[in-house]
Amino acid sequence: MLPLSLYIHIPWCIRKCPYCDFNSHKSPEQLPEDNYVKALIADLQYDLALFEGRELQSIFIGGGTPSLFSAKAYDTLFKSIQPLLPFAHDIEITLEANPGTVEQQRFIDYRQLGINRLSLGIQSFNPIHLNALGRIHDANQAHRAIDAARIAGFDNINIDIMHGLPNQTIAEGINDLRTALNHQPEHLSWYQLTIEPNTVFYKTQPTLPIEEDACIIEEEGLALLESKHYNRYEISAFCQTGKPARHNLNYWLFGDYFGIGAGAHGKLTSADGQKIHRTRKHRQPADYLNPDKPFLAACDLLSTNDLIFEFMLNATRLQQPIANALFTERTGLNFDHLQPGLNEARNKGLITLNTTHWQITPFGRRYTNDLQSLFLY
């Protein structure tokens, strides 16, 4: 049986950030917590009528700003999910939190519910850059949020930090990373700001660091992370020993996951292992909460070419060796489908390849997009 995860999307934020292309919406004065939780449960029940359920290895509550919802709402949700999808004894449950919405008691309540991993969207500790990014928190709130999480008993914390910010200098970029590392988080998501369509930054583009400076920030940052013994196990994910994000690893290793909530995506394999579908829920909260509309906006069967590309799109994000047998295990396809692309990638120096495994090279990491394009048929 393929490992199974659950993604839960909370679509509301206090304010939409100008760089954000996620499915997030300005929250109403009164959040419809009860109605949304009921919809999430019904959404999962609908999916389970179509696809087989089994033990959950991980849950990830993303957004939006999931920390806008009360512990009571998550308590109701978990008590309804567990009879439908049993929790593994060591299940990882992650909740994303905005430092601007932190209350000490709320963090304590989250931890007591069984949420055992917290992901803090800090992005920067610099007040100028926080303002440019449209964040609702300041540097002091960022530090307090990390401290509050520790006091609440969280011993598995991720900090999100971006670099290549508008008008950011090399020194400022490294200082943000160094400041985050001073808190000794178990996990760091450290990545460069990209300008995405359908964002405010796309319409009114800010002045970003020149490419040479961005490269220096990355080189110096990677050296700093290595010196602090953080393992780079994925393009933009770094962790202390034994602390990777298990939920995200399931994505990158092409496991299965249900996706519930407005705009949530899922990837689910049929019981016979012969068919894999991508599911997508209605994006707008009003549509998602409309009892006259189905939750499911699309349920697409992946073709052979889709499976080849999507498997490699995910697996090439990882630094670790990937077993050749994993392709067949996760897609149901013969390894022969992957062999021509892997041979070409090896010949170009993008991967190493032997009879049991393949692994991306440092050269391949510099040209990940080129490597992935070899499998786009």
Question: What would you say this structure looks like, in words?
Answer:
With 377 residues, this protein is an alpha/beta fold. It has two domains: 4-249, Aldolase class I (TIM Barrel, Alpha-Beta Barrel), CATH 3.20.20; 322-377, no CATH class. Helices cover 38% and strands 23% of the residues. It is built from 15 helices and 17 strands. Helix 2 links the parallel strand 4 (56-63) and strand 5. Helix 1 packs parallel to helix 2 and helix 6 (170-182) runs parallel beside helix 8. The chain is globular and about 55 Å long.
Label this structure with key terms.
alpha/beta; 377 residues; nine-stranded mixed β-sheet
Which helices and strands, and how do they pair?
Elements: E1 4-10, E2 12-13, E3 25-26, H1 33-50, E4 56-63, H2 71-81, E5 87-97, H3 104-113, E6 117-123, H4 127-132, H5 139-151, E7 157-163, H6 170-182, E8 187-192, H7 200-203, H8 211-227, E9 231-234, E10 237-239, H9 246-252, E11 256-260, E12 265-269, E13 276-281, H10 285-288, E14 296-301, H11 304-315, E15 322-323, H12 324-331, H13 339-347, E16 351-353, E17 357-360, H14 362-366, H15 368-373
Parallel strand pairs: 1-4, 1-11, 2-3, 4-5, 5-6, 6-7, 7-8
Antiparallel strand pairs: 8-10, 9-10, 12-13, 13-14, 15-17, 16-17
Assign the structural class, choosing from mainly alpha, mainly beta, alpha/beta, alpha+beta, or little secondary structure: alpha/beta
Sheet-strand content, in percent, reads 15-25%
> Which geometry do the CA atoms define?
globular
- Could you list the spans in which at least 5 consecutive residues all have pLDDT below 50? none
Amount of helix: 25-40%
CATH class of the largest domain: Alpha Beta
CATH architecture level-2 label of the largest domain: Alpha-Beta Barrel
- Give me the Rg, rounded: 21 Å
